[in-house]
Amino acid sequence: MKIHTRVLIFISCLLMLSAGFLPLWHILLDAPQYPEGLEMKIWLNGLSGNVAQINGLNHYIGMKFISVDDFKEFKILPFVFGGLTLLGFAAALAKSRKLLWAWFIGLCLFAIVGFGDFYMWEYNYGHRLNPHAAIKVEGMNYQPPLFGYKQLLNFTAGSLPDTGGILAGLGGLLIVAALFYKPQLSSNKIK
Questions:
Q1: Which of 53-57, 180-184, 186-190 has the lowest mean pLDDT?
Q2: d(CA 76, CA 9)
Q3: Phi, psi (5° rounding) for residue 62?
Q4: Looking at the DSSP assignment, which residues form a beta bridge with residue 155?
Q5: Rg (Cα) of the chain, in Å, rounded?
Q6: Domain residues of the chain, as ranges?
């Protein structure tokens, strides 16, 4: 394994570590009555932001309260993500392409399972509504988008990566570069 590959792996691992200290994702709610908007940040181990206010609004449309205690993922994610990051460091230190591939595949599986779980979380909260809610709109569901923006009654809901998610994504791109980038030999060295 060449030195530039190992450097890319180390940089990627450092970017991945930022996910332990920075929010991964955020959900935004904008409406005329909330000009500053409401925001919920999703971390590896919990939630922050205007969760109480969002729960108060969700109550009127029959959504279940959002509580960190309802998500076993927040107890598991830091360990899984930490283990995957350690695998990256091990690949660089051992100069092992097999470990690099294992790390890449592990991160891909982590992303697929994570986004699938996030989609199901949003689906359940947006579709399983209390039939006795104060506000009912026939045929309406309140599932925020997995990525991007969606109009939900008078609210515009946005779901986008936050700082930790962006840095982890950049780390993932560096892993792809480490796996597939092959520097070209200059014509002087070929002679």
A1: 186-190
A2: 24
A3: 90, 15
A4: 152
A5: 21
A6: 3-181
Residues in the chain, total: 191
What is the enclosing helix (H) or strand (E) of 7?
helix 3-17
Give the largest Cα separation in the chain, rounded.
80
Chain centroid to CA 147? 10
pLDDT for 185 equals 52
Instruction: Name the token pair of 188.
Output: 């002087």
- Helices 73-94 and 3-17 pack at an angle, to 10 degrees, of 160
Token duo for residue 113: 């399972």
Segment 61-83, tens digit of pLDDT? 888 899 999 899 999 999 999 99
| Residue 141, token pair as written in the block | 């569901």
Structure tokens given for 186: 């200059």
pLDDT at residue 47 is higher than 80: yes
